[in-house]
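[Meeting: bench + compute handoff]

Bench side (C.D.) handed over the final construct sequence. Compute side (W.E.) agreed to return the predicted structure before the next meeting so the bench team could plan truncations. Sequence as handed over:
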Amino acid sequence: MSDLFTPDFKTASYWWDRSPPEDGNDAAPPADCDVAIGGSGYTGLHAAVQTARAGLSTVVFEAEAAGFGCSTRNGGQVSTCIKPSFSALVRRYGETVATEIFREGQASLDHIAGFIREETIDCDFRIAGRFHGAHTARAFDKLAAEAEAGHPVLDTGAYIVPRSEQHREIGTGSYHGGMVLPHHASVDPGRYHAGLLAGARSAGVQIVPHCRVGQIERRGDHFLLHAARGTVKARRVIVATNGYTGRLTPWLQRRIIPIGSYIIATEPIPPEVMDGLMPSDRIYSDSRKLVYYYRASPDRTRILFGGRVSLAETEPRISAPRLHAELVRLFPELKETRISHSWGGIVGFSFDTLMHCGEHEGLYYAQGYCGSGVGMAGYLGMRLGRQVAGLGDGDTIFSRIPFRAPPFYSGTPWFLAPTIMAYRIRDRIGA
């Protein structure tokens, strides 16, 4: 193509068109509060809703605009995904713990559906189902075996679609068939975050955007948060920064791998073309180690296509052509379709590929969603908020599994480039 980008091309999240980040304000935080929360994404706001509704004065600090991170940058796919297999978790923790982990994965999807319904948030949430494409014949055989055996814990309803019938799900011949997971969902993450933010404010939460916390100091039974616009005394502190966790909390930083994920949105696509490419209107992913995830926009006018396309972190104008090439590999019909938006965000991975929630030296935290944060971040934020509020149902299995850090890691993932290269090779040869 002579011109890959539309004239109004933006290096910003597509979701911000309808739900733009709020302008900052210079309001000072209060001198003291019961609960201070760092991070205004799904985790922090769900925790804040719980503590505020329990009668605790709650303040949310955000270094940027509210929701600046991955809560408004993701692809809007909601799953029950737990990265390790059930058998791997049984070997690691035993069958009882493995079962609890997978049940909480399902609970995370149930929670977001129930919360959106009960709070009447208008955010295009729907149970769309997922088509998970097999990128090799070997991958299809593995998916078929999984579907035949059934999940040991969840009633996933998953079923196999052979290559000869996959045109009913997706208009590409690049896959060797796939699996449908009918309970997975989609959402407009920007509108979801905006509704969550409004609900938190309605509950009495004070949001303090553009106010970075530079130091957290423990003083006996309370903390002092030294922020850009003042010092706040807080009896409880929640760290809800996930992939954006930094030097402020070094213990957490050593346990999180920040990994960039990048997304493009196409210019409007004719309805008849969209109907041919995505006839079932699901969310989509594939069996690669370096997975691609994509979907139609809620109004079915565009395709949003995301994944990891570089060894090191990059910027949207560089990632966009690479993602477009992969999109065209799947859908050659889109060769002349231009890109209207390109953006990225930082995903927080843990070394055991599980999410974690708990308390360390008085600081409460939930993070490490490993790409499943649209549902899990809100769910664990809710659980954590109930723990901090002293309510009886805040316990979660993710507070009871070890949250380990390897030696010689301080938060900079020096190993990321060789790992991605190895995954690329495995994807290429179908290993």
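W.E. noted at the follow-up: The mean pLDDT is 95. C.D. will use this when planning the next construct.
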